Amino acid sequence: MHNTQPWSWHVGDHRLDLYADRTRQLPVSDADGRNLVISCGAALHYAIAGASSLGWAAATEHLPGPDDDHLAALCFTPHPPTREAVARAELLRTRRTDRRRFIGWPVPTILLHRLACTTRYGTASAVPVTSLVERLRVELLVSRAMFAEDADQRFVSEQQHWVDGVRRATEGIPSENATPGAVDRLRPTRPSRFEDRGDRATDDDSATAIPPSSDGLIVIVTRDDDPASWLDAGDVLCRLWVAAMEHGLSLVPVSQPIEVPETRDSLRFDILHGEAHPVLLARLGWQVLSRSALPPTPRRPLDEVLGT
Ligand SMILES: Cc1cc2nc3c(=O)[nH]c(=O)nc-3n(C[C@H](O)[C@H](O)[C@H](O)COP(=O)(O)O)c2cc1C
């Protein structure tokens, strides 16, 4: 989240251990560490997929303990890479969070169902939001969460710090990635946490000001609301992203309705009928074909995230 890259890897003999780096946790918007562990789950997915494309199979143990921040242990054995593993790693390498406005084509309901039902890992899975009423309710929850966070100066300062804020060039989100629509002079049809706050609907008019959106919506859910489940959710996020890319779709994670307890509860009970815990929302849609590729989001140097 916010390209905090909250992980630390320890290298052993044919072995990698993943640790959460709590110094990179966002204390205001992610006090529980949910987004931090989901981010680490995504990094874990990348490590396994990358190794697999290079000829290494990983036996993985989650939360091997006793340290709660020791999220996973990977033991590698040689295994010839398949063509699928190489193609998958290439998709992951070129993946970006592309926040530019999608074209107006709605994502077909059947495609959203297919993407969701083929995407699960451990206790995490994906639930499509397809009925008109529920889509509108989810959009309202997104607006309410944004309004709540905008009204809290602590959220605003935290986000500003990580988006073109007081940081090094290898972390956080550069403005050309946070608001790329501004470069193309596109006004997003959907609300984005990084857009100019002056352009947003206020809480009073949010019910009527929600623009008609054709974005596909999928909620990533877990059986429990704990670190083991959040780690699985990071894996599901990557699986969903790759599956979406295979259909030419772009995906943008939206965590604000989960960050705010009131909207998280509404999502859980009003939309998911209390059957699962929502941990991340994803917007899906198609980018204009001729649109330029986005620059990669920067990453910290390897020697900073790898230790022995
Ligand atoms: C748990 C989680 C929550 C995120 N929430 C949001 C969000 O609310 N809005 C958004 O635009 N991007 C969100 N993102 C996307 C990250 O900002 C993005 O993955 C990060 O900056 C790295 O950039 P990249 O995806 O291009 O590699 C989220 C990502 C994760 C893993």
What's the quick description here?
The chain has 308 residues and is an alpha+beta fold. It is built from twelve helices and ten strands.
Q: What about the largest sheet?
A: 5 strands, mixed
Poorly predicted runs of 5 or more residues? none
What would CATH call the class of the largest domain? Alpha Beta
**Strand order of the biggest β-sheet:** 3-4-2-1-10
What's the CATH architecture name of the largest domain? 3-Layer(aba) Sandwich
Oligomeric status: single chain
DSSP strand count: 10
Q: What would CATH call the homologous superfamily of the largest domain?
A: NADH Oxidase
Distance between the termini: 25 Å
Class by helix and strand content? alpha+beta
Shape: globular
* Helix run count: 12
Kindly provide the radius of gyration, computed on alpha-carbon positions and rounded to a whole number of angstroms: 19 Å
Fraction of residues in β-strands? 15-25%
How much is the average pLDDT? 92
* Helical amount: 25-40%
